[in-house]
């Protein structure tokens, strides 16, 4: 069934900045002010796609479309995408390569509206995933309930008076 699922694009943002971030020093969360915001380590295009129940953040070259990094997301909010404590335009994502290695990087948008669209596209996807699982649970429960038999039994009749 996994190979029958198609990939759909949820959001495309043409300008995103990527930052190397210092390790988290405390449990308080990440702060974008700790990053070198005026010197991004990479700039490119961001695409949010979904395949089945998993969403993917793909960072791609603006011109060639070559994949720079990818972050699979199983739940949101979660460890794969975190907001920073001091800005609504910056996020920390966990990128993974094909071998299972992962790293945390910072991404940022120059426009607050782009950051809002990115956030909402992830929220909408996982709201849809939640609704799909609830619908499938309800249909499974309906299959296990006894069927209501409203048919006539052998020899049973009905009388109608039409006035």
Automatic annotation (TrEMBL):
SUPFAM superfamilies xrefs: PH domain-like
Gene3D superfamilies recorded: Pleckstrin-homology domain (PH domain)/Phosphotyrosine-binding domain (PTB) (2.30.29.30)
Top-rank lineage group of the source organism: Eukaryota
GO biological process: endocytosis; protein transport
Record-linked InterPro entries: NECAP_PHear (IPR012466), PH-like_dom_sf (IPR011993)
Domain NECAP PHear: 6-163
CDD domains assigned: PHear_NECAP
Key words, A-Z: Cell membrane, Cytoplasmic vesicle, Endocytosis, Membrane, Phosphoprotein, Protein transport, Repeat, Transport
Keyword Membrane: yes
Any single Gene Ontology cellular-component annotation: plasma membrane
Keyword Zinc-finger: no
UniProt subcellular location: Cell membrane; Cytoplasmic vesicle, Clathrin-coated vesicle membrane
Major localization listed first in the record, in broad terms: membrane
Family: Belongs to the NECAP family.
Function: Involved in endocytosis.
Designated name of the protein: Adaptin ear-binding coat-associated protein 1
Organismal lineage: Eukaryota, Metazoa, Chordata, Craniata, Vertebrata
């Amino acid at each position: 069934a996994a190979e029958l699922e198609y990939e759909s694009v949820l959001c495309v943002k043409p300008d995103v900045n990527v930052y190397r971030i210092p390790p988290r020093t405390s449990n308080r969360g990440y702060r974008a002010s700790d990053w070198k915001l005026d010197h991004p380590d990479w700039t490119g295009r961001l695409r949010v796609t979904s395949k089945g129940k998993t969403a993917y953040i793909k960072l791609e070259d603006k011109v060639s479309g070559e994949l720079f990094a990818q972050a699979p997301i199983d739940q949101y909010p979660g460890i794969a995408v975190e907001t920073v404590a001091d800005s609504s335009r910056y996020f920390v994502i966990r990128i993974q390569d094909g071998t299972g290695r992962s790293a945390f990087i910072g991404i940022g948008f120059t426009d607050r509206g782009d950051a809002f669209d990115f956030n909402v596209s992830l929220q909408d996807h996982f709201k849809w995933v939640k609704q799909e699982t609830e619908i499938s649970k309800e249909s499974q429960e309906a299959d296990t309930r006894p069927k209501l038999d409203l048919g006539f039994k052998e020899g049973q009749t009905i009388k109608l008076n039409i006035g």
